[in-house]
Specification:
The protein has 907 residues and is of the alpha/beta class. The protein folds into six domains: 96 residues, no CATH class; 45 residues, no CATH class; 109 residues, no CATH class; 103 residues, no CATH class; 231 residues, Tandem AAA-ATPase domain (Rossmann fold); 235 residues, Rossmann fold. It is 41% helix and 17% strand. The chain contains 35 helices and 33 strands. The chain has a seven-stranded parallel beta sheet with strand order 21-22-20-24-26-19-27, sandwiched between helices. Strand 30, helix 31 and strand 31 form a beta-alpha-beta unit. Helix 10 packs across helix 11 and helix 14 crosses helix 15. The chain is globular. 35% of the residues are buried. Its EC number is 3.6.4.-.
Length: 907
């Protein structure tokens, strides 16, 4: 037992596993696994760096920590009330090693043995044993990452860390030592110097020219002279962090004159290191504002042939080039002069701007190529145009080069992509389903657009099979063995659905998910893909946005955004990041009618065909304002014609499609458990299985039925199982992807002007849905339960049929029979009943005589739980008599082993 344990204290045994990160589990003295939420506060009770555990990462019953965090947390004595000890000898060894590594990190002599070799941190063999050296290297690596620095920057910070530690120097009492960068005045050179200010003031002081060469103790004002040695030390340590500073006189204030190139080097490297260690860096405010300024190029594109009927894809086009820099118009002569001068910072009028001289050279080269190479229409329309033409700034969502097509080219584009004349593409032999005629058209369209080099938006109505069309396309593409995988980005709530649908229709495609806390990152991501060689990588919007470096490091075979309205807000980091991903083919899937959401439309087109809908400001002026403010029919038609070639949208109301659709379509909506749900699920199963071993047959049946109800509530939302009150949607929805998906789907259905029924067995689930939908979408949603009087019940049914409210929640028992609700075109089953006949009776409230519309049935299933296993079992045993599956009673007759397999959570 750990020597620090005291009488009355609590003891937790830790099981520690090590990959790139540490995974830690805890058990109590009784041998029961304990969720991190219970014991984590005791571990972090003094840890300010993580805000006392607020930012700590968990995954189910595991606490995830970096090597640096592991050392920091376990180097001190335990909490006075709680003791942590290793479960096994190797776990105890890890805890002891944390203390040893902490001692080494505080050892100034360590840094005499540290070096960087081939991008890796190396510690000399003479320092400690190999285990400590390896752990130290990993810890230093994570310390760098936490400060936003790379391994390559380690040599520049070693001296500083050796002297001041990772947290840097403590603040002085009355003054601040800083570095200042000043713009050129009369000459061409910038000024870089060490300056000071009073802690209570904002004005910087530096020696006058007359006293610039005097020693620091003499150059200082009288009030600071007693601190001359500390100021010297701070200057020396700060300048040691600057790769741009080769050598300097430690006894004098540093002052140097730098060129544009030296300034850029400082901004790219030195400033980042200085700020990582809390050093104050002063640069001109205008320089901060224009660091990413770029020149803009507008190309008016014309065809020498005036009649569109004779213009073809290979028709040579002419360009009329126009330039501007920060809104200032430039002539071709001005542009050529900028390129020739090769300067980074120039003054236009009274304004300083920065231009990328390398970018100017590339632009000039691109323009010369365009003039000399006889570009065709096909070259210009995003297929073979140099990447520089599609670049964008960090602050604006504007293309670097903007094209304006004349009328004949626009007309050609419309004719070229007329979807009624698409070439036929044979269906892949390994597709395990049949496509309906309109789905085959969608597949042909996807393939044709890929071959022609155009992105597209497949905007079929919900339930028409966008997923199967995309899967067929992927089978076709990867049947030709491209060098890179395809990427699908989707909301977290439908990630499981994509996994199941790909497995169902295209088992020959190798699919991997990039999701979860232990997903490969950095170089490991590329190594993982190289080893696995997947055809398809599935990820979510949140992960794709946070792992932007990994995603942007690849040029994907295709990139598909499912529920593409997730990037509709062009200004969010998620939208900006994902729109920068690069692939051979960009595809957007959405069932939302985007024609009436113009900002969303622009954002989606910026992803599929960057620059085609102009810069956002011009799009607002030319389309958004005339349509949204003035309701201009002429402008609507103009926009409709422009987007039509790249947008395929079919709706359920299309008579051509109705002939080929079933009257009712049933679809499983797969949702994973959250880590919180998974931990509670496993704990409940383990506890119940142990109890079953001691019970009689009758007692066991009662326990199984009780557990079944608890598991079903837990699959819906942990607050139902824990009997917690509703707080707000922001807190409730992230705890259950099933609840989040149902609320989102119901909201989307209502926004499209359709109506839906939501069936649930649990009053608590109905209230959660009511409150969340009302809070997020503003709909007052009635909830029909068994306690509702008949008069009120009849009134609600009549109001729903009259279209007075779009969403109706019903208790499965109270609303599953005897009602006529044919106004609904969607039926959502929030939780599964083990008798299919009961679900079908509920569905038939909408799908019955008098229903003239297509009915889409959504059955929500949590992956890896009893819901999925029962659904699979019912499919396998369709020959069972209805009496056998009339209720959940048949499950109570299963053997203990069968019950354990049925209830166990598995992925």
């Amino acid at each position: 037992m750990n020597q620090f344990q005291t009488e009355g204290s609590r003891l937790y045994y830790l099981t520690i596993s090590r990959g790139e990160l540490f995974r830690i589990q805890a058990t109590n003295e009784a041998g029961n696994r304990i969720p991190p939420e219970i014991w984590k506060p005791y571990l972090y009770f003094l840890d300010k760096d993580s805000f006392f555990g607020l930012t700590a990462q968990t995954d189910g019953l595991d606490l995830i920590v970096t090597p640096a965090d592991f050392v920091r947390l376990f180097q001190r004595e335990p909490h006075h009330y709680v003791t942590f000890a290793g479960q096994r000898a190797e776990d105890e060894a890890w805890l002891k090693l944390a203390g040893k590594v902490a001692d080494s990190l505080n050892d100034p002599l360590l840094w005499d043995h540290v070096s960087v070799d081939g991008g890796e941190i190396s510690i000399n063999d003479t320092y400690g044993d190999e285990e400590i050296r390896t752990f130290l290297a990993d810890t230093i690596h994570h310390q760098l990452r936490q400060k936003g620095l790379s391994v390559g920057q380690l040599p520049y910070i070693q001296g500083f860390v050796q002297e001041a530690g990772w947290e840097g120097l403590a603040d002085a009492d009355d003054y601040v030592v800083a570095v200042q960068l000043s713009e050129p005045d009369a000459d061409e050179f910038w000024s870089f110097k060490v300056v000071m200010r009073s802690k209570r003031g904002s004005v910087y002081w530096s020696p006058s020219k007359r006293r610039a060469d005097e020693p620091i103790d003499k150059a200082l004002p009288e009030k600071w002279r007693p601190f001359a040695e500390d100021i010297k030390k701070r200057q020396s340590l700060f300048l040691s962090l600057c790769p741009s500073v080769d050598r300097f006189d430690e006894d004098r204030f540093y002052h140097a004159e730098w060129t544009d190139a030296e300034i850029l080097e400082f901004l790219r490297n030195d400033a980042e290191i200085l700020q990582a260690f809390g050093v104050e860096v002063s640069i001109p405010s205008w320089l901060k504002a224009v660091q990413e300024s770029k020149i803009r190029v507008k190309a008016n594109v014309n065809s020498p042939i005036k009649k569109a009927s004779v213009v073809g894809l290979d028709q040579i086009i002419n360009f009329d080039w126009q330039f501007s820099l920060n809104g200032h118009e430039l002539s071709m002569q001005d542009f050529q002069r900028l390129v020739s001068e090769n300067k980074e910072f120039i003054r236009i009028g009274n304004e300083w701007v920065r231009v990328d001289s390398n970018l100017l050279m590339q632009l000039r080269k691109m323009i010369e190529e365009a003039e000399d190479a006889d570009w065709t229409i096909k070259d210009m329309l995003f297929q073979n145009v140099p990447e520089i033409m599609l670049d964008e700034t960090a602050d604006e969502e504007d293309p670097l080069v903007e094209f304006h097509l004349n009328r004949s080219l626009k007309t050609l584009l419309d004719k070229l992509l007329d979807k009624r004349d698409l070439p036929e593409t044979p269906l892949p032999n390994n597709l395990l389903t049949e496509l309906r005629p309109y789905q085959k058209i969608g597949f042909d369209y996807l393939v044709f657009m890929r071959e022609e080099g155009f992105g597209l938006c497949l905007a079929d109505d919900m339930g028409l099979g966008k997923t199967v069309q995309l899967i067929t396309y992927l089978l076709h593409v990867h049947g030709k063995n491209p060098d890179q995988p395809s990427l699908i980005v989707c909301p977290t709530s439908v990630l499981g659905n994509w996994q199941k649908e790909l497995e169902r229709f295209a088992p020959d495609l190798k699919v991997v998910t990039h999701y979860g806390s232990i997903r490969p990152k950095g170089e490991e991501f590329n190594a993982f893909l190289a080893a696995e060689k997947p055809d398809v990588v599935l990820s979510t919007y949140g992960i794709a946005s946070s792992d932007d470096e990994e995603m942007q490091s690849l040029h994907w075979s295709s990139i598909t955004l499912d529920e593409a309205q997730n990037i509709k807000n062009m200004y969010t980091k998620q939208s900006r990041t994902i729109r920068k991903f690069k692939g051979d083919h960009h595809i957007a899937l959405t069932g939302t009618p985007i024609e009436n959401r113009l900002s969303e439309l622009w954002s989606i087109f910026d992803f599929i065909n960057k620059g085609y809908l102009y810069r956002i400001k011009q799009f607002q002026e030319n389309f958004m304002i005339p349509i949204e403010r003035d309701n201009s029919e002429e402008t609507k038609e103009k926009l409709r014609q422009r987007i039509q070639p790249f947008l395929l949208r079919r709706t359920k109301k299309d008579p051509d499609l109705q002939l080929n659709l079933p009257e009712k379509q049933e679809q499983l909506e797969y949702c994973p458990l959250t880590p919180e749900q998974a931990a509670l699920y496993e704990g409940l199963v383990q506890d119940t299985v142990q109890k079953m071993e001691t019970l009689t047959g009758f007692e066991k049946k009662g326990l199984v039925l009780k557990m079944l109800s608890k598991l079903k509530q837990l699959c819906n939302h942990p607050s139902l199982y824990l009997k917690e009150p509703y707080t707000n949607a922001a807190e409730i929805l992230p705890r259950s992807q099933k609840l989040e998906r149902i609320v989102t789907l119901a909201g989307e259905i209502a926004e499209r002007g359709e109506q839906c029924l939501i069936f649930t067995q649990y009053i608590g689930m109905g209230h959660l849905l009511q409150q969340a939908i009302n809070e997020l979408y503003g709909h007052e949603v009635p909830f029909l339960t068994g306690s509702m009087p008949k008069q009120q019940r009849d009134s609600l049914v009549a109001s729903f049929q009259a279209g007075k409210f779009p969403i109706f929640i019903l208790s499965l028992k109270a609303g599953g029979t005897g009602l006529n609700l044919t106004a609904a075109t969607h039926v959502l089953h929030a939780d599964r009943w083990w008798n299919p006949a009961v679900e079908n009776q509920a569905t038939d409230r909408a799908y019955r005589i008098g229903q003239t519309q297509f009915v889409h049935v959504h059955k929500f299933v949590t992956i890896g739980t009893i819901e999925e296993k029962i659904d699979s079992l019912l499919v396998q045993k369709q020959s069972m008599s209805e009496e056998f599956i009339q209720s959940s009673q048949w499950m109570t007759d299963l053997s203990d082993n069968d019950l354990k397999e049925l209830f166990t959570y598995s992925l």
